[in-house]
Write a structure and sequence with these properties.
The chain is mainly α. It contains four helices and two strands; from the N terminus they run H-H-H-E-E-H.
């Protein structure tokens, strides 16, 4: 597992988040479910923001060659696993809403089936909790990688400063 694979996984998950967010917003028509709908939308949006930060970090790290080449393979595998877990949960939210909670309406519209929503309420609530937990895992893992990368930047800066001190004293 390398940083490029992680970046690819992040971008794939970003696409799934965008699709699921659009699907969740279709439930806003329900008057009885604004809290859960908003909570699902918030979790997906928060996950998306974390992923954008991770993607930016890996892109800049690759461009500036800041990723430590012998980074612990286990960390990358854990990151990949967490990204896969998040993708599965996001796709499951999308599938539950698309195929179990809504039904085709006139034209391209969808009709929210309130009874089906109530039947799937606990499942959607669990998915919202799972998304939050997975987002926390991803944040923790990528903070660990970020700290290691940024500590390498500090070492380089310290070396530069140490090398410049004799020149400054002259």
């Amino acid at each position: 597992m390398d940083p490029l694979s992680i970046t690819t996984g992040v971008l794939t998950l970003l696409g799934a988040c965008t699709t699921a967010s659009a699907t969740v917003s279709k439930l806003r028509r329900l008057k009885d479910a604004p809290d859960l709908v908003q909570a699902l939308n918030n979790e997906i949006s928060d996950l998306r923001l974390v992923l954008l930060d991770v993607s930016d970090h890996f892109r800049s790290a690759q461009n500036e060659r800041l990723v430590v080449p012998n980074m612990d393979e286990t960390i990358f595998e854990l990151c990949s696993f967490a990204l896969d877990q998040a993708r599965v949960k996001v796709l499951e939210v999308d599938a539950v809403i698309q195929y179990q909670v809504t039904k085709p309406g006139r034209g391209a519209g969808l009709i929210v089936d309130k009874i089906a929503f109530l039947r799937n309420y606990n499942r959607l609530l669990q998915l919202q909790s799972d998304l939050r937990d997975t987002r926390h895992k991803i944040t923790g893992l990528f903070n660990h990688i970020g700290v290691r990368s940024f500590s390498r930047i500090e070492v380089v800066l310290n070396e530069i400063q140490a090398n410049d001190i004799p020149e400054l004293l002259q």
